[in-house]
């Protein structure tokens, strides 16, 4: 892993040198500053800040979501200078694994900008080997400090899955694959003995919790977590309020 990072860093330096030789913007030279400086963006109101540890990365997401909830978003890292800065390299401070729902765009929900987050989205954040590989990439190759599994209120995929289980009807095409992946969280929710109107929300939360557990046990991510270089946490987004609540991961 260290060898790959060395190669990536060497390649980035070479690209920056080439860009400078052809009269590129001075922003390229600034992009080679230390990681602690590169991760400090210019946004105001608390959406920006250092993100060199998992705790700092989480605090930055919390601050950004506070901006979103309070209607005081800063929309950081959206300038031409920022676009030039990240053209030759990227260092997202967090990975967000969320649903494809159009009402839950992570960059807006957390008031972050270009190059700040690496986002992976699937229906109800269901995942297989290919998706897991995408989630591993940010922490292992780009040194992202945090992985957030973001579920949300009234998830359409979970609602369809619960209805499919209840009615015994198979959904068409690959939608059936999504339903199958949600079987375990649905069964966990059913064991709570909740009324039907609360079953969908319980399944959403169970899906998030089970996903966090699986990712924390991932053979590639687990050593980074043990070394304090990464944390994997669950979160829940309220469509009604815009607020994200984070759940304490199971150790």
Explain what the structure shows.
Helix content is 48%, strand content 11%. It is of the alpha/beta class and 251 residues long. The chain has two domains: 1-32; 34-247, 3-Layer(aba) Sandwich (Beta-carbonic Anhydrase, Chain A), CATH 3.40.1050. It has a five-stranded mixed beta sheet with strand order 2-1-3-4-5, sandwiched between helices. The radius of gyration is 20 Å and the shape is globular. The model is unreliable at 6-46 (pLDDT under 50).
Short précis:
The chain contains twelve helices and five strands.
Keywords:
globular; alpha/beta; 12 helices; five-stranded mixed sheet; Beta-carbonic Anhydrase, Chain A; 251 residues
Indicate the mean pLDDT: 85
Give unreliable regions as ranges. 6-46
The strand order across the widest sheet is 2-1-3-4-5
Fourth-tier CATH superfamily name of the largest domain: Carbonic anhydrase
What structural category characterises the helix and strand content? alpha/beta
Please state roughly what percent of the residues sit in beta strands, choosing from under 5%, 5-15%, 15-25%, 25-35%, 35-45% or over 45%: 5-15%
Biggest sheet record: 5 strands, mixed
Instruction: Give the ordered list of helices and strands.
Output: HHHHHEHEHEHHHHHEE
Number of structurally distinct domains: 2
Radius of gyration: 20 Å
Counting DSSP E segments of at least 2 residues, the number of strands comes to 5
Query: What's the CATH first level of the largest domain?
Result: Alpha Beta
Enumerate how many helices there are, as a single number.
12
Spatial gap, N to C terminus: 25 Å
At the fold tier of CATH, the topology name of the largest domain is: Beta-carbonic Anhydrase, Chain A
The outline comes out as: globular
CATH hierarchy: architecture of the largest domain:
3-Layer(aba) Sandwich
| Helical amount | 40-55%
